[in-house]
Amino acid sequence: MTNDEFWSLIDLLDWEKTGDDEAVIEPLVKSLSQKAEEEILAFEDILSEKLFNLDAEVFASKRNIFGFKKKNEYISADDFLYSRCTVVANGPEFYDEVIRNPRKFPHDLDFEIILVVATVAFIRKTGKEWDYVPKVSYETFSNKEAWK
Of the residues 33, 43, 95, 102, which has the maximum number of CB atoms within 10 A of its CB? Predict the structure, then answer.
């Protein structure tokens, strides 16, 4: 899967269904589940890579991520991950804008459900259990070089 194919799939999110996250991701899940298993795994790898790229002190600097203190605000590691999900879910233009200008990072939004898209698509396609581990971890603080 290419980067452009990944973003084309992300573009299938149905924001007219905002408020019902499962309905928002359904067009993406449906399309992804019709692809080869390898493509579903590739989608997960690209998603993980993009989330990993956003796992950086520069994006968290407006908040207190566990011991990270610049202001008297607190956000959990999970909340920071879910905010990173929002960046990816909003497409390539917003993702690139945030990468270029970390002040645009949306600390007050989350879109956790994007993390299950590949899992649901894989199970729907194969009927098998999901046990894939992406090439990079998207968990907060995994990008060690980006946290000084």
Answer: 43
